[in-house]
Design goal:
This protein is an alpha+beta fold and 297 residues long. The chain folds into two domains: 213 residues, Multidrug efflux transporter AcrB transmembrane fold; 74 residues, 2-Layer Sandwich (Alpha-Beta Plaits), CATH 3.30.70.3400. Helix content is 71%, strand content 9%. The protein contains ten helices and four strands; from the N terminus they run αααβαββαβααααα. A hairpin with a 5-residue loop joins strand 2 and strand 3. It is elongated, with a radius of gyration of 24 Å. 34% of the residues are buried.
């Protein structure tokens, strides 16, 4: 019951996080990777130890003044730059070896055209929208027999509010990280968002389902606020334990995994924590708020 009774506190925390995320996205936006913008991605290592990062960037700046050179988790550097043709590729290879003064090994040299980048943006947006639409339809259908005191479609509406909350917060976090540390979003980030949506709605439905069952067994003898409070209490330990187990595994993967999955894992950690918070502390209490608003009309 303490969660429902203190719901305004949790609403305030959630609103503050969402506002900060929206402001960050408005001011700094997200830093798109070459998956979306097109360009060249190079994974290079050095047999005799990495040269100075700034020296590599300076050597490559003759080809692309906006080049990005960052250390990779396995040694060497990850280079992101504009799309290069065959003539420029030779200049890039020479620059990576610092004009033959360093022994470099290029593990990958991948180019993505702007057309493919635009297609990736479109597919990413469509994927997220389709998942959200599917979730709305499923929840509305699953709770179609629940009509009192809150209609089934309002369960779907609350779930969507929670999902938007769970997407905006990791996007805002990556906007801040992108501004401060150059973190980019790629197609793996979109995959992480889809996983977050699925995980979040799973936790939300667990609580909603308990609310539905408690409504059925109470036969209108208990106030809706009390029913929702009991439902949250009955599912609280399960939701927290499930999320804590997943987050613990992701933290280990983030620490021990390679750079290729680091941002993907970090997005999942942020999203799952936000999703657990919204499922337990925001979603079901919103049902109580809706029921109270209905009573005042």
């Amino acid at each position: 019951m303490w969660i429902v009774n203190n719901r305004k506190i949790f609403y305030s925390i959630s609103i503050a996080l969402v506002v900060i995320s929206i402001l960050a996205l408005s001011v700094w936006k997200l830093v798109p990777s070459i998956d979306f913008t097109g360009g060249t991605l190079i994974d290079v290592s050095y047999s005799s130890g990495n040269p100075d990062q700034s020296a590599v960037a300076k050597a490559l700046s003759t080809v692309d003044p906006a080049v990005s050179v960052r250390p990779s988790g396995t040694g060497g550097f990850i280079v992101r730059m504009k799309a290069v043709d065959q003539n420029e590729k030779a200049a890039v290879v020479s620059a990576l070896s610092l004009n033959s003064t360093a022994s470099s090994t290029i593990a990958s040299f991948d180019s993505v055209g702007p057309v493919l980048g635009l297609e990736a943006v479109k597919r990413s947006i469509v994927s997220v929208l389709l998942v959200i639409l599917g979730i709305i339809i499923y929840i509305t259908w699953a709770f179609r027999k629940v009509s009192q005191p809150v209609s089934s479609w309002k369960y779907g509406l609350v779930a969507v509010v929670s999902l938007v909350h769970d997407v905006i917060i990791p996007m805002g976090a990556f906007s801040i990280l992108g501004h401060l540390f150059g973190y980019e979003v790629d197609t793996l980030f979109v995959t992480a968002v889809l996983v977050i949506l699925g995980f979040s709605v799973h936790n939300t439905i667990v609580v909603f389902d308990r609310v539905r069952e408690n409504l059925r067994t109470s036969s209108g003898k208990k106030p809706f606020l009390e029913i929702v409070g009991e439902s949250i209490s009955q599912t609280f330990t399960r939701s927290m334990n499930t999320s804590a187990t997943v987050v613990l595994a992701l933290v280990v993967l983030y620490i021990l995994g390679g750079s290729a999955t680091a941002h993907f894992t970090l997005a999942l950690i942020i999203g799952i924590v936000a999703g657990t918070f919204s499922s337990v502390f925001i979603g079901s209490p919103l049902l109580v708020t809706i029921e109270r608003w209905q009573g005042k009309r």
